[in-house]
Amino acid sequence: MHIPAPEIFKAYDIRGIVRTTLTAETVCKIGMALGSEAVLRGVKTIVIGRDGRLSGPELSSALAHCITQTGVNVIDIG
Predict the structure, then answer these.
(1) Phi first, then psi: what are they for 17, rounded to 5°?
(2) pTM
(3) Which single residue of 5, 47, 62, 65 has CA 20 to 30 Å from 75?
């Protein structure tokens, strides 16, 4: 089982090296955790966005996919 590197979790965000510590698989696990927590709190929709880095579309797609797997809707604002 893939476990995200603990050093990617900062006080106010998540940061890592793309395709090393921050992969689509890592982002998917984070999405599942966010979605699961949203369900527990009765949240039905999560809004996601990204900056202009080339890795953004791949990682935000993985995040959105895995959040929706928990039954939570995603609004992707790009």
Answers:
(1) -95, 120
(2) 0.90
(3) 5
